């Protein structure tokens, strides 16, 4: 199964286990930038790691510091393999843009309809540099 997605921020194609979040998340205080683990004890997926996974985000809980947390994740090698968002989040994606400007290798960020998320849950997913989201063989 392959779905064409809109590229929000170009970056390195990525492949990893899908992590489809069941609730929005705040990166500031919600994700540990040193480990990539979901640190918010109220989040349904508390303790899961986003590092190296294709992260499907239903939404984010705003904080202007989300971009800094994502930048730290990229810099420290704990970023997701790719980000798949239902709605673009300019503040979060700014972290990828700044990381790229700093010469760091950044993951792809794409936009995909929420209705397609469940088809990827529990699977290995590849996000290609053309924005295609594919179940990996």
Topology:
Layout: E1 2-4, E2 6-9, E3 14-20, E4 54-57, H1 66-75, E5 82-85, H2 90-101, E6 108-111, E7 124-127, E8 132-135
Parallel strand pairs: 3-4, 4-5, 5-6
Antiparallel strand pairs: 1-8, 2-6, 3-7, 7-8
What is the name of the CATH class? Alpha Beta
What radius of gyration results from the CA coordinates? 13 Å
Write down the oligomeric state: single chain
| Domain module tally | 1
Tally of alpha and pi helices: 2
CATH architecture: 3-Layer(bba) Sandwich
Largest sheet: 8 strands, mixed
Give the rounded overall mean pLDDT. 93
Percent helix: 10-25%
Structural class: alpha/beta
Q: Tell me, briefly, the overall form.
A: globular
- Could you name the CATH homologous superfamily? Phosphohistidine domain
Low-confidence stretches: none
Distance between the termini: 10 Å
Strand content: 15-25%
In short:
The protein is an alpha/beta fold and 137 residues long.
Q: What do these coordinates show?
A:
With 137 residues, the protein is an alpha/beta fold. It is built from two helices and eight strands, in the order ββββαβαβββ. Helix 1 packs parallel to helix 2 (90-101). The chain starts with a strand and ends with a strand. The model has no long low-confidence stretch (mean pLDDT 93).
Defining key terms:
single chain, 137 residues, alpha/beta, Glucose Oxidase, domain 1, 8-stranded mixed beta sheet, 25% strand
């Amino acid at each position: 199964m392959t779905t064409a997605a809109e590229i929000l921020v170009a970056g390195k194609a990525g492949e990893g286990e899908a992590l489809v979040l069941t609730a929005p998340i705040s990166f500031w205080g919600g994700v540990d930038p040193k480990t990539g683990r979901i640190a918010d004890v109220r989040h349904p997926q508390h303790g899961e790691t986003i590092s190296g996974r294709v992260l499907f985000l239903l939404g984010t809980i705003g904080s202007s510091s989300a971009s800094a947390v994502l930048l730290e994740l990229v810099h420290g090698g704990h970023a997701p393999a790719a980000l798949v968002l239902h709605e673009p989040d300019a503040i979060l994606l700014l972290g990828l843009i700044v990381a790229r400007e700093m010469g760091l290798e950044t993951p792809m960020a794409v936009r995909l309809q929420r209705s397609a998320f469940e088809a990827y849950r529990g699977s290995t997913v590849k996000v290609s540099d053309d924005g295609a989201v594919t179940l990996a063989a």
